[in-house]
Specification:
The chain contains ten helices and ten strands.
Amino acid sequence: MDEIRLDFPYYAMRNSEHYQLNRRLLKYIPVEFAEKYGVSASRSKFQLTFYSENECYVGNTKFASTNEIETLDKKRSNLFIFFLKTIQSGLYNPEEAVVNAAKRMEYLIKPYKDAYRLSYAQKSAMIADFVDLVQDDEIQTDLEALGLANTVSKLEEANEEFDTVYETRSTERLNRSISETMKTVRPKVDKAFTELAKDINAFFRVNELTTKDAETRTDFLAVIEKVNSLLYEMEKTLSRAGIIGKPSGSTSGDEDEPTPEPTKPMIVDIYQKEGGDPERPLQFKKGKTAVIEGSGLTLLNAEGTGIGDIILSSAIMEEPIDDKVPAEYITLNTDSRIEFTMIEYLTEGEYNIRIETYYNGEGNPPLSEPVVIKFPEVITLIM
C-alpha cells in the first residue's frame, strides 16, 4: 500500500538542505488538502515549527553572507569568467599562435570551467588549484599570448581576499549560534512532519480498506507520490555527497546498475532567494534574486553560444506580451538550478513563467527546436 515513507534520514541533511526540503514539503501538502481530509492540526503544527526554522536559517544565512562577502565573491567570479571568455575568443583570433595558445588553455581549464557556479568553499579550492596549475613556464607563455598573465595574479589576489574575509566572518561565535539554534529546532520540525505523515497514512489506509472513495484515493496518492519523490531526490543527493549509502531500492555493483532514464525537463519550484514571504512563496519583489529548481534546466540559445530564455507573460491579459529576462540578469545556469534577478520594469501583478532552451547535452550541437518548460502555477510580482 502506498504511504509516505517514515524512514527518511533527516539527521544526515545539512542545514540548507533541511530548510529547503521542509519548505517544499509544506508546499506539497497544501492547506486545502489538510482541511478537506482532517489533517489541519498536524499540518499547522508542522507549519509553525518550520516557521521557527525559517527564522533561524534565514537570519543566520543573512549574517554569514554580508554585502562585503558577496561583493568579493562576485569580483573573483567575474575575473574567472573573463578568463574563460578570453580563451574562447582566442580560438577565433586571426593569429595562429594565439589560436594554439587558446586551444591549450581551453584543454587545461576544462575541469575548472564551472568553478564560478560553485559554493563559496568549493569555488575557493577550485580557483586556488587552477592558479597553482598555470604557474608552469610554458603555460605562462600561452597566458601572455592571450593577454591573461596579469589576470592570473589578480584572480589569485581576489580569491585570497575573499577567503580572508570569509574566514574572519566565520567566527566561533557564529558557528556556535548556528549549530545550537538549528540543533534545537530541527528535531522539532522532523517530529512535526513525521506526525503529519502518519496522519496522512492513517487516513489513506482507512479509505483503502473501508471507505474506498475514488476521489479521496486520487487526492491522497497525488500528495504521497510528490512527497516520496522529493524525499527520494534528497536521499540521492545525500548519497552522491557520500553522507549516506545508496537510496532505498538502489542496486549494488556497477554491473547491476540500470541504465539511467533521460532527465525529464521540468520546473519543480520557484522562490525568492532571500527576504521572501513563507506564507506567499510565489510572491516576488522586483529586483530581487529568484531561484528556479528542477531538472534539465540548462539554458542555451539556438546558436549554442549564449544563454537561453527565461520568459514572463501576464496571466490576466488575453494576448500577453512575452518579457525576456536579460541575459546579464541570469547569475547561475545549471541543469538543476537557475538564479536570476527579477525584472524591475514589469508592472505588479500575476505572471506565467517558462524557460526555453536548445540545450542538447554536454558537447552536443543545439537542438533544432527549443524545449519549452513551463511552471504550472502563477507567480505574483510586487514592489
